[in-house]
Amino acid sequence: xxxxxxxxxxxxxxxxxxxxxxxxxxxxxxxxxxxxxxxxxxxxxxxxxxxxxxxxxxxxxxxxxxxxxxxxxxxxxxxxxxxxxxxxxxxxxxxxxxxxxxxxxxxxxxxxxxxxxxxxxxxxxxxxxxxxxxxxxxxxxxxxxxxxxxxxxxxxxxxxxxxxxxxxxxxxxxxxxxxxxxxxxxxxxxxxxxxxxxxxxxx
Length: 203
Ligand SMILES: Nc1nc2c(ncn2[C@@H]2O[C@H](COP(=O)(O)OP(=O)(O)O)[C@@H](O)[C@H]2O)c(=O)[nH]1
Ligand SMILES: [Mg+2]
Description:
By secondary structure, the chain is an alpha/beta fold. The chain is 31% helix and 25% strand. It has six helices and seven strands; from the N terminus they run E-H-E-E-E-H-E-H-H-E-H-E-H.
């Protein structure tokens, strides 16, 4: 018979105590990483905004995250430590550092970008190893002011073609309930993987 793991016996997901996890938000400049973290954090976000240097970064705003952001919130008996990464390419090393110990990843893509699937490709490659081993979610923003005709299904198909089966959601990073929906979906997937029955454990 399969064993159903509950409580604290597997990878630390408790059904009775508060769990703590780290989640990381990656994605292109201006997609809404900083905005999204600010929308849901229950503490003042600790951040490192500075003048942007890369042209791409200036598309939406004059400043951008240069090292990291940190926000904290609690949902479903879980404390979520939320880390935002810089979008500018020259800070990619920082994103890799921030991924250490993370339980899941949100890849946020600005649908108003000239070539959003190329942007997605970049982040799938950069974080491919992490996403193959951990739960991830693709959050697509800026649908209301989009300049492209790329739809959610296009993102899904593209990710599948590249070997990534991750959920795709439409999000407005300015809207707290949207961002919370994304976090809930990712959290459920994290818990599901950690508590799923282990097939044929005892033959
Ligand atoms: N119209 C629109 N604006 C958005 C949406 N999501 C985020 N924004 C705005 O886009 C900008 C994103 O900036 P920021 O959060 O700093 O992006 P980051 O570089 O990913 O951290 C902000 O001005 C947000 O208010 C969306 O879905 N629609
Ligand atoms: Mg930012």
